[in-house]
Amino acid sequence: MYEYLTGLVTSVTPQYVVLEVGGVGYQLFVANPYRFQEDAEKKVRIYVYQAVRDDAITLFGFIDRAEKQLFLQLINVSGIGPKSALAILANPDHQGLIDAIANDNVGYLTKFPGIGKKTASQIVLDLKDKVAGMTSTALFSPAVPVEADNPALQDALSALSALGYKERDIKRIKKQLLKVDANTTQEYLSQALALIN
Questions:
Q1: pLDDT by residue (tens digit) across 115-158?
Q2: Structural domain contains residue 121
Q3: Residues 129 and 166 in one domain
Q4: Model-level pTM?
Q5: Where are the beta strands (DSSP E) in 42-99?
Q6: Residue 21's beta-bridge partner residues?
Q7: Residues 6 or more apart from 90 whose CB is under 8 A from it?
Q8: CA–CA gap between residue 13 and residue 121 (Å, rounded)
Q9: Domain range spanning residue 10?
């Protein structure tokens, strides 16, 4: 098992980042790849979780240890796989997520791709005591606002699709994103996730 990898971010895609460590490029699936865009060609530490299945060995990456711990708690909930957990962690309203779990707000949780009422209820049941008293600042860095139509916006929209959001929802928020200001894909994606949920 790996705790973290330290290396250079050499590639950022809508679903994953590539971290070069000792001449080897590791494909790390992350909740929001574009938050690593500013770190391209810089040495960074990414916390990892290795999932082993019959047909694949997959690495999931996290900005810090706290995000990794929340991911591990989410995948231990019946009905939540790694992709669903990443889609939940990609939400920029982290305090809203924590509050929804703590306050039995099943409706809030069903907004995430692949999360139905039954699974949302299971998340609340399994994690309510674990998130009690938790704040988003203890877990995540703050989200950043977003900008007009450009390649960064297109990358953000591709990332939403990769996270499993429906095309009609993506088209709906694109109109709103065209009216805001941003410079990076990370900024667009943060705003898009806030609008879509």
A1: 999 999 999 999 988 876 665 555 554 333 333 336 788 888 88
A2: yes
A3: no
A4: 0.68
A5: 43-52, 57-62
A6: 24
A7: 31, 32, 159, 163, 189, 193
A8: 32
A9: 4-62
